[in-house]
């Protein structure tokens, strides 16, 4: 795809009030925020609908970018990358607040060291208020053009987006999101001794660290909630979520396993989840029936010991730097 100095198109939805969009290239980076994704295809493979960046400050207000890596399908963004600017921390603003903004969103052309700038034509000013807290472009860039190596937007599965709000004063602040396959120290094994004597509803393993986050295994020997008396329940838990920044999420794809100690072979089940403060554990309420668990021939309990493990297959890592 070759862009002229100024390419004008009509937006596909009424969210832009049918005002045109301009696309132009420039050498100067965005003034306020850069957002790098080091593994775009892996991010798409997680199935996440959208990803919200950390907060950045511009013009005396706080903002974040909202990226739909596979397109905002609810707003005519299918087949595109969708990117929006959202005002943050609005609860700290006075009732009836309004913020008028002229902004640009960017995609970095890594081959030519240029920035594709996307904005409302004629410098349209957008009004952010209580009923409209985000503006942007559902058709920011065709996914076909993003993945076309001749364009330079995606190099070694890495791409960079950006934002400019109000005054041009480059802060140099970055957020880097990676989805890392087979992270270091990604396997943790836990032995539950004296299993027949365990009388609590659940037990937590020691903490272990993967992807700069601390995790625990949670086992319900007799099942949790609706599975009590029916199944063994096993979960992976992300600890200390309450200390996360608002809306921070962590993705993990993982295998939960239980060892057949007679055959030295694991019964394994794979899951994936975006962990956050409101959803800090994920796994299988019905990992195995209690009947199977206690069958001697199955080998799951030997010498009154149960062995469970988790192997984290991939994990998201977000880093803020200046």
Automatic annotation (TrEMBL):
<dbReference type="Pfam" id="PF22486">
    <property type="entry name" value="MATH_2"/>
</dbReference>
<feature type="domain" description="MATH">
    <location>
        <begin position="30"/>
        <end position="165"/>
    </location>
</feature>
<dbReference type="InterPro" id="IPR008974">
    <property type="entry name" value="TRAF-like"/>
</dbReference>
<protein>
    <submittedName>
        <fullName>Uncharacterized protein LOC113850831</fullName>
    </submittedName>
</protein>
<feature type="domain" description="MATH">
    <location>
        <begin position="185"/>
        <end position="312"/>
    </location>
</feature>
<dbReference type="InterPro" id="IPR002083">
    <property type="entry name" value="MATH/TRAF_dom"/>
</dbReference>
């Amino acid at each position: 795809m070759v862009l002229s100095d100024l390419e004008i198109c009509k937006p596909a939805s009424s969210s832009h009030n049918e005002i045109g969009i301009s696309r132009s290239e420039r050498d100067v980076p965005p003034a306020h925020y850069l957002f790098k994704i080091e593994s775009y295809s892996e991010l798409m493979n997680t199935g996440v609908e959208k990803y919200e960046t950390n907060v950045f400050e511009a013009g005396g207000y706080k903002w974040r970018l909202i990226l739909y890596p596979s397109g905002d399908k609810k707003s005519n963004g299918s087949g595109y990358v969708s990117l929006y600017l959202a005002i943050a921390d609005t609860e700290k603003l006075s009732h009836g607040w309004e913020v008028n903004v002229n902004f640009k969103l960017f995609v970095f052309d890594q081959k030519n060291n240029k920035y594709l700038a996307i904005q409302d034509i004629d410098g349209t000013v957008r009004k952010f208020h209580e009923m409209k807290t985000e503006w942007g472009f559902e058709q920011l860039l065709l996914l076909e053009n993003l993945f076309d190596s001749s364009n330079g937007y995606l190099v070694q599965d890495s791409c960079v987006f950006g934002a400019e709000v109000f005054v041009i004063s480059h802060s140099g602040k970055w957020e880097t999101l990676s989805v890392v396959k087979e992270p270091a120290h990604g396997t943790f094994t836990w032995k539950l001794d004296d299993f027949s004597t365990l009388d609590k509803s659940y037990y937590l393993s020691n903490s272990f660290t993967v992807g700069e986050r601390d995790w625990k295994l949670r086992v319900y020997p007799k099942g949790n909630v609706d599975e009590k008396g029916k199944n063994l329940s096993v979960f992976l838990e992300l600890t200390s979520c309450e200390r996360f920044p608002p809306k921070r999420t962590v993705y993990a794809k993982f295998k939960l396993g239980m060892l057949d100690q007679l055959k030295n072979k694991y019964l394994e089940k794979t899951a994936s989840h975006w962990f956050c403060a409101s959803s800090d554990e994920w796994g299988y309420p019905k990992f195995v029936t209690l009947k199977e668990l206690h069958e001697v021939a199955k080998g799951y309990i030997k010498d009154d010991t149960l062995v469970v493990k988790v192997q984290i297959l991939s994990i998201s890592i977000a880093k803020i730097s200046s």
